[in-house]
Amino acid sequence: xxxxxxxxxxxxxxxxxxxxxxxxxxxxxxxxxxxxxxxxxxxxxxxxxxxxxxxxxxxxxxxxxxxxxxxxxxxxxxxxxxxxxxxxxxxxxxxxxxxxxxxxxxxxxxxxxxxxxxxxxxxxxxxxxxxxxxxxxxxxxxxxxxxxxxxxxxxxxxxxxxxxxxxxxxxxxxxxxxx
Length: 179
Fold this sequence. Notes:
Number of strands: 13
Low-confidence stretches: 1-48
CATH topology: L,D-transpeptidase catalytic domain-like
Structural class: alpha/beta
Number of domains: 1
Oligomer: single chain
């Protein structure tokens, strides 16, 4: 059983890496006006629009704040980790991004494909890992729980908000989690 779970985890990781690479190649750069840009130009445009962006999560406020060039641009309500599963505090960076992510149940190993029943919603923005578990921003089909301490450490957002946040960040964007 353990060998099967390890194999399923490995397969899911390989599939997610493929999805991540595919998603990264499909990101439309902010400010792009034509679809005839070269891949190098698209990457430069995306880097320019997100390189001066940083995120600050204030757990007490239950909000994530988006700063660009040290100016507050917007903020979004969030759900945070519940007692015993607190969201880790500190300084991190976005380490992965996925569009329409699949989710694997951590105990059962079952995989929930993208769609309305997926607990990750429309986007995943990972910023913390201990090598086994991942924590990040994601949408949720239970948007009424946003504003509460209900997750296993992740930052849950309304789907429309995580879509907007996803468009403003890139891998490497700093993320600070404050009490």
